[in-house]
Design brief:
Mean pLDDT: 84
Low-confidence stretches: 1-10
Strand content: over 45%
Structural class: mainly beta
Amino acid sequence: MLAPAIAALLDDTVLTIIARGADGQAALERWYPSATDDVGTLVLGHASVLRVRVAREGIPVAGARVALAVGADRIPFGEMRTDAQGIAGFESVPDGFAWVHAETTAGPESLAGRARAFLPDELEVAVPLAHLLPVDG
C-alpha cells in the first residue's frame, strides 16, 4: 500500500512500462496506477530491430534527434541521435506500427521529418528532412 501523498501523485499519471528479454523479445504496456494496483504480468512477444535512415536531399544527417513511438496509440518508446552515416537503430521494438520523428537544427535552419513503418515487415525506414514552415499568427 502506498502512502496517501504518493497515491495522490499517481491519480492522473500514466506510466509506460517496457520490458525486454535477453532473446530479443519485448512487451510494452500502459499502466494507470492507483494506490493498490499491481502491474501484473507482462508477456514478452516478438520484437524487431528498426533501422532509421535520416537524410536531407539524399545526404545523410549526422546528429539528428530521432524519436520513436509504437502502437496505434503512439506510445513513446525511445529517443537517440543518428551516427555519422545518418543512422539510428532501435532494438527490441515490439512488432506493429512504429512512428518516427526526426529533427535537427543546422545553424539558423530547423529541419524535421516523419515516417511510419510496420514491424516486422519493414525493418528500415527513411526519414527525409525538410524546412519547418513558419507559423504566421
